[in-house]
Amino acid sequence: MSEKSKFSGHFGFVMAAAGSAVGVGNLWRFPYLAAKDGGGFFLIIYLILVVTFGFTLLTSDIATGRKTQASAIHAYDQMDHRWKFLGVLTFLVPVIIMTYYAVIGGWITKYIVVFLTGHGAEAAADDFFTGFITSPVESSIYAVIFMVLTAIIIFNGVEGGIEKCSKFMMPVLIVLIVFTAVFSLTLKHPDSSGRVVTGIQGLGVYLKPDVSGMTVSRFLQILLDAMSQIFFSLSVSMGIMITYGSYVNKDVDLNKAVSQIEFFDTLVAFLAGMMIIPSIFVFSGKDGMAAGPGLMFVALPKVFSAMGGFGHIVGAAFFIMAAFATLTSCISVLESIVANVMEITGKPRKPVTTVLAVVYTAASVIIALGYSKFYVEIPLPNGTVGQLLDLMDYISNSFMMPFISFLSTILIGWILKPQWIIDEVEVGGVKMQRKALYTFMVRYAAPVIMILLFLQSTGLLNIILK
Length: 466
Ligand code: PHE
Fold this sequence. Notes:
Layout: H1 10-21, H2 24-36, H3 40-68, H4 72-79, H5 84-116, H6 120-123, H7 128-133, H8 136-155, H9 158-185, E1 188-190, E2 196-198, H10 199-207, H11 216-234, H12 240-245, H13 254-284, H14 293-306, H15 309-345, H16 349-368, E3 378-379, E4 385-386, H17 388-416, H18 419-425, H19 435-457, H20 460-465
Antiparallel strand pairs: 1-2, 3-4
């Protein structure tokens, strides 16, 4: 077998891993949750959870990858032969996510085109988004473009593809988000009664902890919202960080790398909130924070259009930033599938990538057609009704991830013991920071929270509490 591919060093790895972590989850889901869950109160809870749970899960994944030098299936097989099934389950998460991630990437690409060609005002119309996703040909074409782009990067390998494009896109993304976030603080607009609402007031809504009407069950809900966001946002428990960890050289200090990835991911989420909440607040008031894709593809274009001429530039900047965030995440999903398949079959990168690209181009088209030709209404266990994309998202994120996380913390905390991970972090004489915290988290706190999360997202918690 040829020499294993690697990242060139610390910076390349952190940019690639942060690239995977920073995605649409940071840009729309985090601001939406912050607005819904008490502003600053959510921010505090989220921060505490990132440096405890987030840190534990991310360290476990990355150290597992580096220690075993393998992706999920072979990694779990090496950890304990009887737990190979957990590797297979973990592998299935990106396998499912990949069916729809390029579809979302396609939507974003469409909006870049719309804003760059000066048609931003049209995107502000109520039925523009629905019109686009229900048009079978157009939505499929954009999904295919995004899928092919992803495959080309993966085809070029770890250093020449993933690392190179992350090192370019992530810094650009930071510049764009700082620019749009600061700009949104300068906004002013009169509300229906003629009173001028400012971006700074919107910032207050975002940052001020709102605990009015707090009950135990609401607190629990906020806790679980923050927890599930951390999972999704850090790309943990889906084998992606195991694969990326397997490309990290032994001389990289994992303490530092993990802290930097957490910091980067949280910073972008925080700035996204600082950009989105004030701008929606200024133009549509407190009730403007619609859930789901509606926020990004319906509410924001309205805001950009209300900004006048400059709105085109801000809109284009926003969607370019979103495309970079989505592309660096999408490549990590495909990479972890490719890496597992390469390990299982022993075949080289290029043919494996080519075959998977064909398979997923077809899958993406099917999911994209889930809003037109293959429209269905599927009742999900958490009480919502979704189309094909929502079904895939539900299975991977709400159902599989907490379950996998629960099992992997049991494996690491109780069967292999936390020292197994600590030893890897301490390779080469570095001292693992937050060691006691890690041990406590992986053995006790994480398994309990994972079970709660699993019960909540499958709707079982409501049944039990009733
Ligand atoms: N971490 C990404 C985000 O925050 C989402 C993601 C999920 C990326 C799965 C890759 C794989 O949006």
